[in-house]
Amino acid sequence: MTSLEVLTVGRVGVDLYPEQSGVPLAQVSTFAKSLGGTATNVAVAAARLGRRAGVLTKVGPDGFGTYVREALEGFGVSSKYVGTSPDLLTPVVFCELNPPADPPLLFYRLPVAPDLTIGEDDVPWSLTREVPLLWVTGTGVSAEPARTSQRMMLANRARSGHTVLDLDYRPMFWPDVKTARAEISWMLDHVTVAVGNRTECEIAVGTSDPDEAADRLLGHGISLALVKKGAEGVLVATPEGRWTVEPNPVEVVCGLGAGDAFGGSVVHGLLSCWDPVKIARYANAAGAIVASRLACADAMPDQEEIEDLL
């Protein structure tokens, strides 16, 4: 693979989706397997849009780890920086399509997920400093040693190029809100772009009000804040102004992965030097397409599909 344009850092897993919708897990009889994990899905979404993408993460020495590497390469994403934690298992995540718009997730990441064991020796330091776009996540600092490693990556990069923080808050990964806010807030001082929904903004900056959250995010010195408001669209905020991009109505099959499709399109837009509103419109459309499908990585749209919807 040629030199990367984007490197995402963080969560990976194998998603198991029920083939029966609207019923609890106890009544599901069959599941479909898919590549998953926020950072991984964003890399796949960016690759679907023609970007040279890679992911820095870790898996276990098991068949699911092999599946992750093969699936990444199949999607055109470099697996060069996928390490192995010899004593841990590749995470598995069960999804319950009940309700489909906001499915509950059951994470098997104990005692700790391999992607949270990314250590100093796992990091390609020159790449994380020089890649045009580095994508990090809130989940990535929920435990050590990944927390310190991700902090070191950001400090080493010193806000060069596009440095994007996906607020990516999952309460089950944190001991309490106070700890999550402190760690995510630190990262906001070291990135150029922040992306998150209302709940994630409340965790990061203490308010779920989109405009107030945008003010607080920009107060950390970032150049672009994208606050996802669900059915009310997306608030786009820069130091120069702010705009609301309307949503794309679709029939929701599964809400999972829509945010990662959004993220992959943000990557594409930033690397294409688009204006912020165009980025948000494109990303909104990508998210809507994935919400109308089952699965995450496998559901990521290409440019033609997004442009058709727009």
UniProtKB/TrEMBL annotation:
Molecular-function annotations in GO: ATP binding; kinase activity
Record InterPro entries: Myo_inos_IolC, Myo_inos_IolC-like_sf, PfkB_Carbo_kinase, PfkB_dom, Ribo/fructo_kinase, Ribokinase-like
Keyword hit for ATP-binding: yes
Keywords: ATP-binding, Kinase, Nucleotide-binding, Transferase
Annotated Carbohydrate kinase PfkB domain residues: 5-302
Pfam families: PfkB (PF00294)
Keyword DNA-binding: no
SUPFAM superfamilies named in the record: Ribokinase-like
Family per record: Belongs to the carbohydrate kinase PfkB family.
Record's protein name: 5-dehydro-2-deoxygluconokinase
Naturally occurring in which organism (per UniProt): Lentzea flaviverrucosa
